[in-house]
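Recap for those who missed Tuesday's class. We walked through two folding examples back to back. For each one, the amino acid string is listed first and its predicted structure tokens come directly after. Nothing is annotated here on purpose, so try labeling regions yourself before you check the end of the notes.
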Amino acid sequence: MYPLLAILSLGFLIVVHEGGHYFVARWCGMRIERFSIGFGPGIFKRKSKKTGTVFQIAPIPFGGFVEIRGMNIAEDVDPDDRAAYPNRPAWQRFLTIFAGPATNYLSAIVLAFALYTCHGVESSWRWYGVADVQQNYDAYGKLEVGDRVLEVDHAPIMAEGTWSDGTHTITAGKTLTERVSAKQGAPVTLTVLRDGKKLDVTITPTRIAGPEQELSIVFAAQLRACCNLVTKHGEPRYLMGIVPSETPDVLDIGVIASAKGALEYPVVQTKLIASGLYQIIAGKEQADPGGPVRIYSEFKKAWELGFINGIKLVMMLSVYLGLFNLFPLPALDGGRLVFLGYELVTRRRANPKIEAMVHMGGIMVLGVVMILVTLRDLHVLW
């Protein structure tokens, strides 16, 4: 089901965006000729008897489009055709174009509200959990995936943040690895939470002498990445044989707080995206572009990790898609909004030939970029 969920998630982003254009255009009295998911000739088509719109699925998964009568600037339009795009008032055309990104933001809000209401929100603190238990270690058979580590030798431990129940307060200090290594191989008693019950489990760590011994350990690379097996000076470490995770609590915040958090979500996410773009432009971070293939792969991974992770990725990419389309670049919604904004302010339409050349050039550049990004994705995956 994961590949199917990934495809449906990608399709959801496209349908929501183009659906915004479609419904606002119809509300404004425009005639929609075609609603397409993907580009190219339609593979599956269905024509609405009521509106005459052709709904189709096309083979090139670079996005989708809504073809409104007369929207192509090079198209000859009857000046008396009130259903044609250029014959509608400028404010209606502006709303029609703006509706796509706006609907992406709206979908993120709706999904966030549903998630926060039905599931809750993650806490600011993190507990150590058991993500995996390796064989040939004493922890194997004693600890189970999903266990939450509460104490080490009856001293509370947290991975991050501060937790309080009103009486007791725990603040993150030394890490789990540091606590275990400090015992120098002596047995360690872990208090874990399993199925709602506290259990004390005594584990004798295994001494890792150095890089030579690491190479003989199963999953050495994973353990080295997660548990910091050996210091840069080659000092020995003592391992229990678990791959720890940092797990937050899930808090029930109620309907009102969920609504407030849902409204704040796209704002916070937009700030994070803008900050990331600034870091890339300033040369402080390296860009890592991805196309439909990459998005499909990330969706598949997210759904494999669980339903909540899949929904969170849909929420985040909804904001990404909405913000990206608002960039004032040719061929994007933002580029069209620039021309419409000029028309609203000056009360006169921009030169159609210039606008057509700008958008056509943008489409060509965007197409080349998408092809290159997709080829890069295929190279990475294969």
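Example two. Treat it independently of the first, because the proteins are unrelated.
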Amino acid sequence: MEQINIFLSTHYTWLLSLHIIAVISWMAGMFYMPRLFVYHTRLETGSDASEMFKEMELKLIRIIINPAMIFAWVFGIFMAFGQDLWGQSWFQLKFLCVILMSGFHGFLSRWRRQFARDENTHTEKFYRLMNEVPTILMIIIVFLVIMKAV
């Protein structure tokens, strides 16, 4: 176990850099997907434009959002163990927010599948409101990390 801790502390800046890159990529997708849904609700089901949006949404979730989330989690967990952050209250709240962000990611995946089956039941206004969820969570997370206090 000590060898792992030495490895993590020695390579902390690499892990942090990779974590930040993954988080930025994840957040970009989390901000963009609800915006795609806003515009997708305006389109006629089965139209060429609607089919194009389905393809864009699928590629966004599979090529950007899913891998970025996985890498953000992996690098974040490594850093949390390397710094033994689990007992710190700011980290526990941050971790809760990341779990909530991951849950929202799950909702985006579900809504994308509904669009893919032409079964969307939500309005443009709903997706505009949902577009704010990752923003609020991101703000809380950033302040917690920078301030390292609750």
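Answers for example two:
The mean pLDDT is 94.
The two ends are 30 Å apart (CA to CA).
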